[in-house]
Amino acid sequence: MPVVDLQEIQKTYGEGTNRHIVLDRVSLTIEAGEYVTILGPSGSGKSTLMNIIGCLDVASNGVYRLQEQLVHDLSEDQLATIRNEEIGFIFQQFQLLPRMSVLQNVELPLIYAGVSRKERRARSLELLERVGLTDKADALPSQLSGGQQQRVAIARALVTRPTILLADEPTGALDQKTGKQIMELFESLSEEGKTIIMITHDVNIAKQARRIIRIEDGQVTEVTT
Ligand code: ADP
Ligand code: MG
């Protein structure tokens, strides 16, 4: 059974002559443990697709099953829990909270999930160790380099042990060398069995995954396995 099952997904904006099709009947299934990149030029609909997969946005038409649940039928509360606990989001601009320490940033999803203080601490420190930032636990994000901030964001994304890691241009704000280190981290997470969906406009980054899905003008044009 696929983790992500999108059938004929459409996303449109506007009405009548102003109607603009952003995703045009996208069908796609992703199995547990896959490492997939979605490759396409700027404006092709990648972030829109990622937001639908991550339940941050809803499709205008079509059917989306996430772990066999019909997303359309879920309540706002259920969607909020899925966004916090089942999906680990990683963005180009890291999106850490600037006034919170590195450790507090990583702990945050566990606070929302109602995990006890002691377990929060233990799991967050374990993840910081995993990304090599134990010594930065008490630092503020602004005291870290871009690559380190993205590692914190990855630790935060992993802390709830989500089903899917969803990354939108995760190396887009990093220099090449730092970007490569981040890609190595994704590679090792994939080897550990994580399901990873990564969005990129960079073909060299896309090639790191086992499977590349091309999107152009809102249509999936090619699926490589
Ligand atoms: P990508 O991530 O591939 O660069 P996006 O998914 O961000 O592309 O955007 C795809 C298209 O959808 C673009 O033409 C963009 O202008 C349009 N779009 C995205 N969000 C909205 C919105 N809220 N309202 C209208 N058009 C939008
Ligand atoms: Mg985008």
Q: What is this entry, summarized?
A:
The chain is α/β, with parallel strands linked by helices and 225 residues long. It is built from seven helices and ten strands.
Q: Give the H and E element order.
A: EEEHEEHEHHHEHEHEE
Shape verdict: globular
State the strand order across the main sheet. 6-7-8-3-9-10
Q: What is the helix tally?
A: 7
Q: End-to-end span in angstroms?
A: 17 Å
Parts with pLDDT < 50 across at least 5 consecutive residues: none
Small-molecule binders here are: adenosine-5'-diphosphate, magnesium ion
Q: How would you characterize the largest beta sheet? A: 6 strands, mixed
Query: What's the helical proportion of residues?
Result: 25-40%
Cα gyration radius (Å) = 18 Å
Estimate the strand proportion: 25-35%
Mean pLDDT: 95
Q: What structural class should be given to the helix and strand makeup?
A: alpha/beta
Number of strands: 10
